[in-house]
Each structure stands twice: as C-alpha cells, then as structure tokens.
Write a structure and sequence with these properties.
By secondary structure, this protein is α+β, with helices and mostly antiparallel strands. The chain contains ten helices and five strands. A five-stranded antiparallel sheet has the order 4-3-2-1-5. Helix 1 runs antiparallel to helix 9, helix 7 packs antiparallel against helix 8 and helix 8 packs antiparallel against helix 9. The radius of gyration is 40 Å and the shape is elongated. The chain starts with a helix and ends in a 25-residue tail after the last helix.
Length: about 325
C-alpha cells in the first residue's frame, strides 16, 4: 500500500476527529451571542419563570451589573421570562416586544434574549444572585435537598466542567495536528491513537460530569420550586452534542488504532525472476538439435551434442541448423 492508500486509510478517522472538534466548538460557543438564535438554543438548563407569582418578584436585591437590560426602572434586578445556562455564563430574556429587525438577525419570534452575563472559566449559576432573591424567600422555599445540590454544584461540579472542556478541546486539536504525521507512517498513527484515546476519555468525563450535575440540579429545583411555578428543563441539543462528541471520538480512536497496525505507507514490491538456472529459451521454435525450455535435449541435438561426441556439458542455443552448428566446447 503506497502513500495514496495510506491517505485513504486514515481519511475516516481524520474526518471523525474533525467532526468531534466541531461539536466541541459549538458547545463552547453556547450562550455567548444573544443575537444568535442557534447559539441561544444551546444550553444545559433552562429556567422558566414566566408563570412565577409576585412573591418571586418582590423585595429583589440590586444587581451588580452595568448591563441596563438586567435592571428595571428602579435599578433592581428585572425578572425575565427565562434563563438559559451555558458552559461559561447564562443569558436571560422574554417573548415580548420582538421587533422585525431582531428576527432578521436570527432571533426566534417566540423569544428574545435581552442580555448575557460575562463569561467565566469556572462558572456556576447562582439563582439568588441572578433573580435577586432575598433571604426570606430562599429560607422558605429552598429545601435542604436543593441547598445540598447547589452546594455540590457550586463547590465541585462547576470547578470541573469548564477545565475538563478546555482539556478535551485541546486534546482534540492536538489529535488533529498529529494526524498529519499518520499519513506517512504507522508510527504516526500510533502517536495519533494515543492522543485520540486521551480525547475520548476526556470527552466521556466531561459529558458524564455535566450530565450528572445539571440533571441533579434541575431535578432539585423542580421539586423545591414547583409551588412557585418555576420550571427547570434540560437542553437536549447541548447534551446530544456532548455525547456525540464522545461517541465520535471513541470510534475515531478505534480507526486510528486500526491504521497503526494494518495500513502501511510503503509500496509493495514483487521481484520477478527473469530466468532460472538450467532453463533455456528455444529461439528457433524447437528445431532439432537445439535446447528446449526445460533444459532437456531431444532428437538429433542429443546425439550431436551429448551422446554422439561424448560431451556432457549443456550447450546454449548459439548455433545454427544441424550440420553447421556452433559447438563452443568442442575438444581439440
């Protein structure tokens, strides 16, 4: 298999590696552009407060932000209809007063994102700060289970998810770069296989931790705030992208391993013998007195060269017809 075959052999795992990298980039861009409908619909959890009673909106704290969209006319936190939580931050908005111009920028006519918070590597959604809830409300409505889930989320999971994402996307990028060396040798495929294995492992841990953290968090919120008509739901697209990243990177790792042991970059050469000792070509169509292809002797040639003259050396086909044959080994 030559270089062309080698390139074809690694085309599939390389394509899968690039696909997983694209998925990771989309996950990282989620909730980073309030004017993009596609990125706004990529989230881990969506909190719906559109039906929340007045008890949620009363006695709110002042929000420490320079974004005027997050404040009401009194300078306090403005409760939005929904809050979507991404990897680095959260965005908030409502479904009212959607202009034609915003729809032309990609905003859905069913919702409008008013603002997104600044991005943080170890981001954790804090409902008390986001909604400006006072202590009386949290004491009354936040159950022990919810407080426990929030503590684990803020102290552990939020500090793992972001860094693991960075490690995963870095490993995927390095795998794509190393794969260039895999075109030329199986040793390059071996190095790429090791990098792809690390990417697959990191993507699994990243997806598993994020799924567990936000599933537990959404369940705890729904159980505690059901009476307040606040509903949390998981974002299907985000979790599909995460687990597809793991699945695609795992399959890519298997193909890289296959290319490191079964696809050679060297061309196969077959050496054909131009002739074997003792085989002779009959240049005269098998006329009597001339050697045959098998090295045997027949007819008058056997008598002329072998028996009749007592010579046992094999004669080459250098002579002419019988009677005037050239005998290079004739004894004087």
């Amino acid at each position: 298999m030559g270089k062309a075959g080698r390139i074809f052999c690694i085309a599939v795992p390389l394509a899968l590696t690039l696909i997983s990298l694209v998925f990771l980039v989309l996950i990282g861009l989620a909730q980073t552009n309030k004017d993009s409908n596609y990125l706004s619909n990529l989230y881990y959890v969506r909190a719906n407060l559109s039906a929340a009673p007045a008890s949620v909106t009363e006695n709110r704290k002042a929000l420490n932000t320079t974004d005027p969209a997050a404040k009401d006319s009194d300078g306090n936190i403005k409760i939005e209809d929904f809050y979507t939580i991404g990897l680095w931050n959260y965005c908030a908005g409502n479904g009212k007063n959607v202009s034609t111009s915003s729809a032309s920028l990609g905003q859905s006519s069913a919702q409008k994102v008013n603002y997104c918070t600044s991005r943080q590597t170890k981001f954790a959604f804090d409902p008390e700060a986001a909604w400006g809830l006072d202590k009386d409300f949290t004491t009354k409505h936040f159950s022990d289970k919810l407080n426990s889930a929030l503590d684990k989320y803020e102290s552990t999971f939020s500090k793992i998810i972001g860094p693991f994402y960075i490690l995963t996307v870095t490993s995927a990028g390095v795998t794509a770069l190393i794969s260039i060396a895999a075109i030329f040798s199986r040793l390059g495929s071996l190095a790429t296989t090791i990098a792809a294995s690390l990417t697959s492992l990191l993507s699994f841990v990243f997806a598993a931790v994020a799924t567990a953290a936000y599933a537990v968090l959404a369940g705890a919120f729904n159980a505690a705030l059901k009476d307040q008509k606040i509903h949390f739901s998981l974002g299907p697209s985000m979790f599909i992208y995460m687990w597809l990243t793991f699945a695609v990177s795992f399959v890519a790792m298997l193909f890289w391993a296959l290319s490191s042991c079964c696809c050679s970059g060297k061309s196969s050469r077959t050496h054909k013998s131009k002739g074997h000792k003792g085989e002779y070509q009959n240049l005269h169509g098998g006329e009597a007195g001339y050697p045959m292809q098998t090295g045997g002797w027949s007819g008058q040639g056997a008598q002329a060269y072998g028996v009749g003259h007592g010579h046992h050396q094999p004669q080459g086909s250098f002579g002419g017809p019988a009677g005037g044959a050239y005998e290079p080994y004739r004894h004087q």
